[in-house]
Write a structure and sequence with these properties.
single chain; alpha/beta; eight-stranded mixed β-sheet; 17 helices; oxidoreductase; LOR/SDH_bifunc_enz_cons_dom; AlaDH/PNT_N
Amino acid sequence: MDKLYIGIRAEDKSYWERRTPIPPHDCKYIMEKHPQIQMVVQPSTKRIFTDEQYLEVGCLVQEDLSQCKGIVCIKEIPLDKYIEGMTYLHWSHTIKAQPHNMPALDMMLKKNIRHLDYERIYDEKGVNTTAFPYAGIAGIITFLNEYGKYLLKRDIATPFLQIGPTYQYFNKKDAYQALSVAGQAIQERGLPKEAGLPIIIGVLGSTGLCGKGSMEALSNLHVTLVKPSELKELVNTPNDPKHRKTVYVCPFKTTDLVRHQEDYDKEFTSSDYYNHPNQYTPVFHTKYLPYLTIIVNDIYWDHKFPRYITNSQMRDLVQSGKSRLQAVCDVTCDMEGSIQFLKKYTTPDNPVYFYEPISESIHDEFDAKSPKDIMYMSIDFLPSQLPYDASIDFGIALRDIVPHLAYSDSNKPLEESGLPVFLQNATITLHGQLTHKFQYITHLRNINDQLKEAESFQPKKALKKIPSYLAIRLTGHLFDTGAINKILSVVQSGCKFNIVDIQAGQSDNQQTSCLLQLYSKNKGQLMDEVDKVIQLCETLDIQVETE
């Protein structure tokens, strides 16, 4: 019986990327369970597992992967490395029509690639099986290393100096041992009052995947957990002797960050906030930010949500003398997002920059003459700093998925290809086209092109001056059901349109909300088209609200 070959690419996006999607022992598991499958691995001298370890379990190690039925990797692939007609499983970062990755999508379409994306692989409970907490874990370790150096530059020595950068450790067990030793040293020798006691670390998004990783890492520092309601009393007792031997950690949930604009007593629910974020106003910057020494930002955010800290809020707090904030560890890394003064991404080579909140300027080096500076860490590929643990979990997640790539037939229609439904749902391109669930990407690209070509167009304010204008908010399963394709097809036939704040849900179980702006020279024609959209949405179970 002929062998079915599955390839593993050598990661080449960054020299820091040492992960592998399938470790040697999981290759062995696959080949023993599926004797017809032969794993083929591209050689690499930087990968966390050596070529020799792959050879020992029976893998082939060679550059050429062209005979493989499928190729598995982690990060994006250089455009010239795509193999015609190949099946690829990796993160492409294209499902939201991200402009910088559209050339890769075009190349996959041009080369007839069958592309499956980790971002859309969900189990029966709607959980992404290839999402892990390592960004939160790695972020804490490297941040504490940088925080120790930051304090030392202020002539303050602390046990944080005993913690190295994440990439220094083989695995998280070794890193956690260093955190534990530093935590014990704090309990035994204490922290100098010059560090600004009490040291309080606030973790935003503490219940999410990244947040859980950060909380796990911090627990190894032997911290003391406190509630948001306890912060004021802690800060108002600066001479409490407990502060010298304690690092306090305060987990924050979304309910701590915002309140309803009109109904102050309304019980907070995540679903209401996610579906109607414009009805909420941020309160974190006034209620809790004045008490924090450090912020760890693990919260999911996109542009439909309010910012939790703006530049002006931070400036006002500093000018009033009420800010204690020394540093930010931004794990989610949304550029000028939930924390507006995230101004640049950093790297493990240069992990931090410094933000001066009065002038709103940034600089790369510590300046002792600028005491109001806030140290900011914003490494946007943190999981690569724990390549061993991340690879182990990847292997567990993928070892029963990868054989489907070998046994399925990419030449057949998706539904007849032999892929299970959950992998069909993760297939973005096939036979030189976007699959049904991802045809909305074309519409999003067109929208991006329209906005780029007509930058003078100001949707909300300008369009309100035009009589034949109406904005409607659509909420529901727009993408995973193909509803967005049908709605935009109706719109395109009768009027011009624009879309503001369109967000693909993070999973098939989450709804999408977008603002659809319609305009026409003829008001009657516009209203006819709106009626068509509303009628269609009723059949598609899509909620419609006029703005």
